[in-house]
Amino acid sequence: MANLKILAPYIVIVVTGLVTWGSFSARLDEVEKKADNISQIQQDIAVIKQEIVWMKAFLVENMDR
Questions:
Q1: Dihedral, CA of residue 14, residue 16, residue 21 and residue 22, to nearest 10
Q2: Residues 16-43: b if buried by 16+ CB within 10 A, e if exposed
């Protein structure tokens, strides 16, 4: 019984550390997902921008026809 009284605070500290680690890991995963989404959005914007430049050049070139 005495050993349990001595170990109880340490068990609580370890469990608290594990819960904190799990929470931190979950949040880090979410941040990584958001970063991936932002990267994909940036790529999509670059493609759209390129298409707009192409369409503008096409329209200007064919405007006199």
A1: 110
A2: eeeeeeeeeeeeeeeeeeeeeeeeeeee
Q: Helix, strand, or coil here: 49?
A: helix
pLDDT digits (tens, 9 = 90+) for 35-54: 999 999 999 999 999 999 99
pLDDT level of residue 5 (50, 70, 90 thresholds): confident
Distance of CA 38 to the CA centre of its chain: 8
Helices and strands, number each (H, E), in the chain: 1, 0
* Angstrom distance (rounded) from CA 8 to CA 14: 10
With H, G, I as helix, E, B as strand and everything else as coil, classify residue 40.
helix
